[in-house]
Amino acid sequence: MIYTITLNPAIDRLLFIGEELVKRKTNRISKVTYDLGGKGLHGSYVMSKLKIDNLAMGLCGTNNKAALYDILTEKNIRHEFTEVADESTRECYIVLEEGVSGSTMFTEKGLVVSEFEKRNLLEKVRQKVTSQDMVLIAGSLPQNYLISDLEELLYVLKDSGCFIACDLSGEALLKAVEVGVHFIKPNEFELQEIVSKNQSLTENLEALSERVDCVIASQGEKGSFCQYQGEQFQVIAPKVEEVNDTGAGDCFVGAFLSMFYLKKPIEECLRFASGCAASKVKNNDSTSFDIEDALDLQREVTINRL
Ligand code: TA6
């Protein structure tokens, strides 16, 4: 079983602007749509679509829980959230400009969580996770969820003996490395925050791999680098027409972990994940990708053993 833990989920509000965004001008919104937000939930979306048994956990606000649960039901995501009383799951805003590839994201800070609710989540995790499981913790932390809270959660997982994957950033990512989780996937900005500026990417990945079994440094449309079992791989992503890059990294993580969980060879995991992420950026929402398209696109992925 794979569990995903999204400590600070979101409802993404996608704002479509009819033309290019211009400062000091009234930029009219031509369309508004909603999608799932939060990196762990995106992972669960991919796993569910690939028919990998998974359960989405985490924290969510009671005020608008129906809106979040409706999206999860619509996307066939099995979930068991720890509810945070009198709080709202945040909204994140994704701005898409007509004729401009990519997107601009504005994220709210999110939940304020009580000690009681932190404990409830911890207990739920302790009761469910076993050594056979894989757990993905992904996304930002709620406002008063401290690094020490994350550390406690990571040690509960360590004690269970499960495989721990983290898609975190900043201090949270540093803590995950310090604790010695099994997988991390920093993007180029997140990597810069935790490594030495004087070393090359190759050296930094090697150094991180002393504590973390599988390290993937993602580089957007260029692809990624992976360090695993003493080997390094460069993954060159297929060229596609990018519409919305939001969630592409999450799609990669969800697809990679699904294949890894099925014990597929590392190159196969990387190739398929790269195909899924490339398919994702062709879609205008935060989550959609097409499995057939991903299978086609993975043939265009180049993997170089370094
Ligand atoms: O990666 C995309 C996404 O999960 C969006 O759906 C959006 O809600 C945002 O990231 C949340 O990011 P954060 O790092 O604040 O958890």
UniProtKB/TrEMBL annotation:
<keyword id="KW-0067">ATP-binding</keyword>
<protein>
    <recommendedName>
        <fullName>Tagatose-6-phosphate kinase</fullName>
        <ecNumber>2.7.1.144</ecNumber>
    </recommendedName>
</protein>
<keyword id="KW-0418">Kinase</keyword>
<dbReference type="GO" id="GO:0005829">
    <property type="term" value="C:cytosol"/>
</dbReference>
<dbReference type="GO" id="GO:0005524">
    <property type="term" value="F:ATP binding"/>
</dbReference>
<dbReference type="InterPro" id="IPR011611">
    <property type="entry name" value="PfkB_dom"/>
</dbReference>
<dbReference type="GO" id="GO:2001059">
    <property type="term" value="P:D-tagatose 6-phosphate catabolic process"/>
</dbReference>
<keyword id="KW-0808">Transferase</keyword>
<dbReference type="GO" id="GO:0005988">
    <property type="term" value="P:lactose metabolic process"/>
</dbReference>
<dbReference type="GO" id="GO:0009024">
    <property type="term" value="F:tagatose-6-phosphate kinase activity"/>
</dbReference>
<comment type="similarity">
    <text>Belongs to the carbohydrate kinase pfkB family.</text>
</comment>
<dbReference type="InterPro" id="IPR029056">
    <property type="entry name" value="Ribokinase-like"/>
</dbReference>
<dbReference type="GO" id="GO:0008443">
    <property type="term" value="F:phosphofructokinase activity"/>
</dbReference>
<dbReference type="InterPro" id="IPR017583">
    <property type="entry name" value="Tagatose/fructose_Pkinase"/>
</dbReference>
<feature type="domain" description="Carbohydrate kinase PfkB">
    <location>
        <begin position="21"/>
        <end position="287"/>
    </location>
</feature>
<keyword id="KW-0423">Lactose metabolism</keyword>
<keyword id="KW-0547">Nucleotide-binding</keyword>
<comment type="pathway">
    <text>Carbohydrate metabolism; D-tagatose 6-phosphate degradation; D-glyceraldehyde 3-phosphate and glycerone phosphate from D-tagatose 6-phosphate: step 1/2.</text>
</comment>
<comment type="similarity">
    <text>Belongs to the carbohydrate kinase PfkB family. LacC subfamily.</text>
</comment>
<dbReference type="Pfam" id="PF00294">
    <property type="entry name" value="PfkB"/>
</dbReference>
